[in-house]
Amino acid sequence: MFSLPNNATIIEVGPRDGLQNEKNLIETNVKLNFIKCLQDAGIIEMELTSFVSPKWVPQMADAEKIVKNITKVGRQFVLAPNATGVERAMENGADAIAVFVGVSHTFNKKNINKNTDEAMDSLAPVVAKLKEQGKFVRACISTAFYCPYEGKIEVEDTISLCKVFASWGVDELSVADTIGMANPVESYTLFKRLKEELPNLLLTAHFHDTRKMALANIYAALQAGVDRFDTSAGGLGGCPFAKGATGNVATEDVVHMLESIGVHTGIDVEKVCEAAKIVEPLISGTIDSGQFRLFKQK
């Protein structure tokens, strides 16, 4: 049996990654209630919203209201894709900023109309400014395993990009299986290398559940030494630039698995399910958190 950590941290991404591409516009007060219920469940790290153009992501048009009206509990992230977004985020009091870039050139071109090198050139001064001002910076690495356009991504390419962010002084790397195609061997291999080569950096694994491999990949990442995981209540979310990919791995499923193998999270699964029910009637797709009650321990 591989050695597993005693504790793990869950970073809830439902309010941002989970809802950003939802077709039905979710009212601000519903989002705030969703966030509060997730906090009440014991979640102390969360992606709240995204400071992006409302023209392109109308669901995030209320970012200012979200940041100004939530109760700050632990570390609360906002995504800011560029200098304009970062400026807006800081003006509204955000103190933990997430930036993102894909390893894949084609994915970046489809997403932000820049290849990977151009995207990094744009991000360098943004990250430098954030660090000068003492902000916590989270770098989200998309297409770390596979790309919907280029196929398999080489491990060395992902590690190389992560090392650039590390050299900039970012506080955390969130490394994503964006289209949910990674397997446990690939998960272990990449995260083992990253833990060995960047031992002083917070490292988070972000898995999608397209092939129902997310829990297996999380277990493999645990064995590689990772103890931070992005999850989404009810499995909300997906990537609009990765056709066929389903949502994020469900928070309630991950917490249940971790707690059942002795890896403590401090999160109440039942309360996470109750939080998911707040948005369930309002989204265009379906979520499965209600089914989790089948596994409730007596």
Automatic annotation (TrEMBL):
Which key words are in the record?
Lyase, Metal-binding
Q: What Pfam families does the record point to?
A: HMGL-like
Could you tell me which residue ranges the Pyruvate carboxyltransferase domain spans?
8-273
Per the UniProt entry, the Enzyme Commission number(s) are 4.1.3.4
| PROSITE patterns associated with the record | PYR_CT
Family, according to the entry, reads as follows: Belongs to the HMG-CoA lyase family.
Q: What is this protein called?
A: Hydroxymethylglutaryl-CoA lyase
- State the species of origin: Viridibacillus arvi
